[in-house]
Design a protein that fits this description.
The complex is a heterodimer of chains A (348) and B (251).
Chain A lengths: L1 E5 H11 L4 E4 L6 H10 L6 E4 L3 H13 L4 E5 L1 H16 L5 E6 L15 H5 L10 E3 L4 H18 L3 E6 H5 L1 E5 L26 E2 L6 H21 L3 E4 L6 E4 L2 H16 L4 E6 L1 E3 L3 H8 L4 E6 L5 H9 L7 E3 L8 H11 L1
Parallel strand pairs in A: 2-3, 2-4, 4-5, 5-7, 6-7, 11-12, 11-14, 14-15
Antiparallel strand pairs in A: 1-8, 6-13, 10-12
Helix pairs in contact in A: 1-2, 1-6, 3-4, 9-12, 10-11
Chain B lengths: L28 H16 L5 E5 L7 H4 L3 E4 L5 H11 L4 E7 H7 L1 H9 L5 E6 L29 H4 L5 H6 L6 E6 L3 H19 L5 E6 L3 H4 L3 H15 L3 E5 L2
Parallel strand pairs in B: 1-2, 1-3, 3-4, 4-6, 5-6
Antiparallel strand pairs in B: 5-7
Classes of the chains: A alpha/beta (348), B alpha/beta (251).
């Protein structure tokens, strides 16, 4: 049975169904519905909900709950994610799983509350201090929002790497029918022998991102980067639309990826051979599939709600095999399919 | 009969402490506080369910000194980390160990709100009126006129404010079960502080709620005083600014 939900609600319900039993958040538009949904539903599922005093406190509560071995999540929007970066760096440095939802809004600074994709660099290139990565998943529908939250929990637990859902204000607020994923009992999830459950019948477990000796810290970083390589090898996800005979390839994610699908349909209606590659994982980024397509298209057009952030990764993938133009809007302005189509026509 | 057979061991390292060597300076009260905590954890029989949250500061390694599960928190965030641990698993006994820079400057918001929510955690607040690990800078608890490396002419209240009285701040809230200020400058006060630590942990075990034990401590290195003189300074001057005793006991 499908239910009508907003993207924000779908992410919250998807998290509960994935076994999330601790949520910590702070109000900020356009993601308040996640906090409110968790307040209403998580305690009934036997989970802990705390409205924290700040985003800083919320992410550190996640750090504690994750250390206790529980699936934990926080959510926020761009300015709030900036505040969480310290805590995210500590989660990464302590190898703690956690799911962080960023329902992006216009920036920088206070910006506005309209949809934007200006936090791509922050999400995929580290954001906080130190050499770390986040697994970054970008849904483009309400259905996918519910599903990717579950995947984020699984990947985050498996690799002990924090995972981010990079959504935007459009996706968070829109309503669509959703077939919700099944409920998973936290007791059936893989055990976490590293968790702080009390040193009963075993030596104490310690969780820290701290190693004073440079050789020790280097070793910790090297081991973590081995896991990052494993993730890059195994976990790249993307969707292709009409790429088989495409002469112009669009690359777009999230809300913009969804608009780009309409662009492809309209372009095909006019006889233009246009295709789309929509990254689902922004890190690891689908470099190889874009590279392969760049061998046979005339141009790769990146379309983003930013000044061109993912564009840099697209150009790294294409490596000069064909022209790589860019089309973007900022400040919460969302281009119409026809506006993007005009750009495509200049290339086709 | 060999003499050894008549000897009885009357003093030993608490079982809840590891063999790892402390990184504290000679004469510093941190080592004593760690020992008090270890022996109290032993006495209450809670070693197998205690999690120690270590701060950033001189006690940054605290998580390794206890034979308990441990976690290192970001600077000032220990009360939020402790909240997450306790909410995720209420069976744990969660001990947050923090200094004055950590708890009363950068972590003020987390400190106040964890207390105000009545989180069922125990906070040990080591108030030595200085930033020890970074080399002796002014803390929120530094006394009026006290010279530090970042207040070389002495703390000037006109521009730097007065020392922050954390126990009084927390005592103004309705949720905390037990708020006390203790010291360690002589044997009598060590005994009193030990009792206070035991009460604070016992209240958590009995699921009563939040406790804060502020301990007015020394920092011989940062204060540039020999330990004995540092202890005399606490008795003569510091306790005048930070009066000792229980402020709240709702147990």
């Amino acid at each position: 049975m499908r239910q009508l939900m907003t993207g924000n609600e779908a992410m919250a319900e998807g998290a509960i169904r994935a076994g999330c039993r601790a949520y910590f958040g702070y109000p900020i538009t356009p993601q308040n519905e996640i906090l409110e949904y968790m307040a209403a539903h998580l305690p009934q599922a036997g989970g802990a909900f705390v409205q924290a005093e700040s985003e800083v406190a919320a992410i550190n509560m996640c750090y504690g709950a994750s250390a206790a071995g529980v699936r934990t999540m926080t959510s926020s929007s761009s300015p709030g994610i900036s505040l969480k970066l310290e805590g995210i760096s500590y989660l990464a440095g302590a190898d703690l799983p956690c799911v962080i939802v960023n329902v992006m809004r216009g920036g920088p600074g206070l910006g506005n509350i309209a949809p934007a994709q200006g936090d791509y660099f922050q999400a995929t290139k580290g954001g906080g201090h130190g050499d770390y990565r986040l697994i970054v998943l970008a849904p483009s529908t309400v259905q996918e929002s519910a599903e990717l939250v579950g995947l984020a929990f699984d990947l985050s637990d498996r690799y002990r790497v924090p995972a981010m859902i990079l959504a935007d204000g459009m996706l968070g607020q829109m309503m669509e029918p959703v077939a919700l994923p099944p409920h998973r009992d936290p007791a059936t999830l893989p055990p976490k022998p590293w968790a702080l459950t009390g040193a009963k019948g075993r030596e104490p477990n310690y969780i820290a991102s701290f190693a004073l000796d440079p050789k020790d810290l280097r070793e910790l970083n090297l081991r973590r980067h081995e896991r990052y390589r494993e993730i890059a090898d195994r976990e790249v996800r993307w969707e292709e639309v009409e790429t088989g005979d495409a002469e112009v390839l669009l690359v777009a994610y999230g809300t913009m990826g969804r608009i780009a699908k309409t662009v492809v349909r309209r372009a095909r209606g006019e006889g233009l051979r246009v295709g789309l590659l929509r990254p689902i994982t922004l890190w690891p980024f689908p470099y190889e599939p874009i590279r392969a397509l760049a061998e046979r298209v005339r141009a790769v057009l990146t379309v983003e709600l930013s000044a061109g952030q993912m564009w840099e990764d697209v150009r790294l993938a294409v490596e000069g095999r064909c022209p790589t133009p860019f089309y973007g809007e900022m400040g919460g302005v969302v281009p119409t399919p026809d506006e993007v189509l005009q750009e495509v026509k200049r290339l086709a | 009969m060999p003499e050894t057979e008549t000897m009885t061991k009357v003093f030993a390292r608490p079982r809840s402490l590891t063999e790892k060597r402390f990184t504290y300076c000679p004469g510093c009260h941190h080592g004593l506080i760690t020992r008090i905590l270890g022996s109290t954890i032993d006495k209450l029989g809670i070693q197998e369910r205690t999690v120690v949250v270590a701060p950033v500061g001189c006690a940054v390694f605290a998580y390794e000194w206890f034979r308990c599960d441990g976690i290192q928190a970001a600077h000032g965030r220990a009360a939020a980390v402790a909240t997450g641990l306790k909410r995720a698993n209420p069976e744990l006994v969660v001990l947050s160990y923090q200094g004055d820079g950590d708890l009363a400057a950068i972590g003020t918001a987390e400190t106040v709100h964890a207390a105000n929510r009545g989180e069922a955690i125990t906070v040990i607040f080591v108030n030595n009126q200085i930033y020890g690990m970074t080399g002796g800078q002014m803390a929120p608890t530094t006394l009026d006129g006290q010279p530090t490396t970042s207040s070389p002419q002495g703390r000037d209240p006109a521009t730097m404010g007065h020392p922050l009285r954390v126990a009084e701040m927390i005592a103004a809230l309705e949720a905390p079960m037990y708020v006390t200020r203790q010291s360690l400058y002589d044997a009598k006060h060590i005994t009193q502080a030990t009792k206070a630590v035991e009460k604070a942990l016992r209240y958590q075990v009995e699921r009563r709620g939040y406790s804060l034990v502020e301990i007015v401590a020394n920092c011989p290195t940062g204060w540039k005083m020999p330990p004995v003189k540092a202890n005399e300074h606490i008795a003569a001057t510091v306790t005048g600014v930070f009066p000792l005793g229980d402020l709240v006991d709702r147990g």
